Amino acid sequence: MAITKVGMCGLGQMGSGIAEVVAKAGVTVIGYDVEDQFVQKGLGRINKSLSKAVEKGKLDESTKGEVLGRITGTTNLNDLADCDLIIEAIVENLEPKIELYKKLDGIVKKEAIFASNTSSLSIIEMGATTNRPDQFCGLHFFNPVPVMKLVEVIKTVATSDATFETARQFGEKVGKVVVSCADSPGFVVNRLLVPYLLDAIRALEAGVATKEDIDNGMKLGCGHPMGPLELTDFIGLDTIYYIGEILFAEFKQHHYASPPLLKSMVKAGYLGRKAGRGFYDYSK
Ligand code: CAA
User: Fold this and answer.
1) How many Cβ atoms sit within 10 Å of the Cβ of residue 35?
2) pTM passes above 0.85
3) What is the distance between the alpha carbons of residues 167 and 183, in angstroms, rounded to a whole number?
4) Which of 116, 170, 189, 223 has its CA 20 to 30 A from that of 179?
5) How does pLDDT run across 92-150, given as a tens digit for each residue?
6) Measured in angstroms, how far is the CA atom of residue 273 from the centroid of ligand 1?
7) Is 54 near ligand 1, meaning CB less than 6 Å away?
């Protein structure tokens, strides 16, 4: 099936990044969020990102205008009725996701595909609450979406081959390299990344080294663009804690368990860059 119109549910950091790369690939996008202030914030984020690309000479003004012209915003789910693909990137919590999918199932045309950008929740648990589990898959992008080259395409036990193939081709169309994954917690990347980040926090907690030395160790010793504590601040301490809890609940293995330091920092509101404070201070 040709994907010519995408409904992007949730215009936060991930959703606006996804909407941007989809529109850049020539596909019409309608971005949905629950309140107009969130829609406007998401559209503003896309505009800013495209303007930065123009400043750097990576995009010309007229192309920017064309990309923006392909994106509209709405707070009305009914406006998504004729979309070919719905990508959902709302709050990382099963209940509101299921509630949204049930509504969408009654609104969006029968042949449309639903794809969740969840980083760790079960895709089939969402798909099974709709009348189209065979047209349900995962499309997991990485932050910052315009920069990171990967998308994980997740096939559940119910996803049809045709749906998977359409999603895979779509991932390539928006300029990403596709990794195919089974519907297993954390898929490929977070299954490997999250225990590594949790171990770095455990090393800090145990006094193995300072935060700067832990980060420099991995940046300079292994060529990572960010050290693990910087990266945890970038992703959000609450997000890492939450994904760790999901992985631990599933696998019951120590390396997925959150260290007490992470829990304390989350409780204190030190959530990383977005909060102005995490392992590092971003208040300035
Ligand atoms: N949008 C668009 N472009 C952006 C951007 C954004 N939000 N942030 C950075 N960039 C671009 C910059 O414009 C710059 O482009 P040029 O090279 O063309 O000038 C390029 O990215 C590099 O940026 P900077 O020079 O500002 O800074 P940097 O070199 O430190 O790179 C970074 C920033 C790309 C974020 C880099 O540090 C990096 O790759 N970090 C690791 C990010 C990562 O691991 N992400 C995955 C997180 S896990 C996840 O998302 C999944 C999950 O489920 C938790």
Assistant:
1) 9
2) yes
3) 15
4) 223
5) 999 999 999 999 999 999 999 999 999 999 999 999 999 999 999 999 999 999 999 99
6) 14
7) no
